[in-house]
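User: Structure tokens for both sequences below?

Assistant:
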Amino acid sequence: MTEEIIEPGTRKQIYSESIDLKNNELWNFKRYYLASTGFKWISNIAEWTTVIFGGVMTYGLTKGQFGPNLLASLSIGLFVVSLGTAIGRPRSKSKSYYNSGQKHQDLFDKVDSFIELDVKREEADIPELRDQLERLEKKRRQLNRDTPQLNGIWYYYLSWRKDKMFEQASTTEKEEKYLS
């Protein structure tokens, strides 16, 4: 597959770089939202497990119907779940990743608006477009420094899911004609 050579400093080059930036932000915010959802599920499961174990232990202690081995097992299970949530802080991570996803989605929307409203406008000044694109890329680099880092597992999961939701932004034939 040969890649098309795009002349530097042209509207088409700015458009191509903007689409790349848009795709990066698309994957970033979806990855953060996915991680947020995953940690929220972990947190909910841990909380419900705590409630169920605590309820069974309370019932067993008040009614005296469960043996000491079962009560000891439930208390050890309760300890493990509580320790895991205290160390892992899944609820806190969920909120943090959700907020990061919102920031990346905001940048995605700004890049999309830049493409649709500025780059596609014929009377737009090329140096001005270049400056706007550089500001957006600077904001992306700043966001990447400021937001919490995720493991590669989230990328692998997104790559594994071949839903339409995870398609990349692309150029239509009509846009190709306009840009050339």
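Moving on to the next sequence.
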Amino acid sequence: MIKGRFNSNHVNICSFKFFNKITDFDWLPRSVLITTYDPVSEEALDIDRIIKKLLEAGTKYFTCIGDKSEHLHDKIDDIICLHDYKNKTEYYKSVITTYHSEEEINEIASYFFLGTYSNLSEKECFLIILGETNFDAKLRADIISQLEKIKE
């Protein structure tokens, strides 16, 4: 996992494989960016489990990017509505989902950092989950160039 800061807010960047190994959060992924450029199937990524895990951890903002981002956006909305129906909760009132399929990489990164949350608490973070495509590598490099390095 890559860790950094953006305007004093924690930023964590990881792969789907790494995220699936996380059993407990020591930080709260308040705002999450998820790529859909990776050709691996949703079933292989276990996207339903990922979204449920993020909702339970307190994620309030999902930014979906990539050629299948609208589909992922709709899937997240469906997972939220089904969870609310089954558990008599109201996540749909407090969780925001967006998708971006045609924007430039720098626009996506700027929107994610500046348009989702500006002042996270000390225990909250931005979380970016990326795949293994060339687009993901470019996005990772662009985001890393915007981060202030932090020492662990």
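User: Anything stand out in the second?

Assistant: The radius of gyration is 15 Å.
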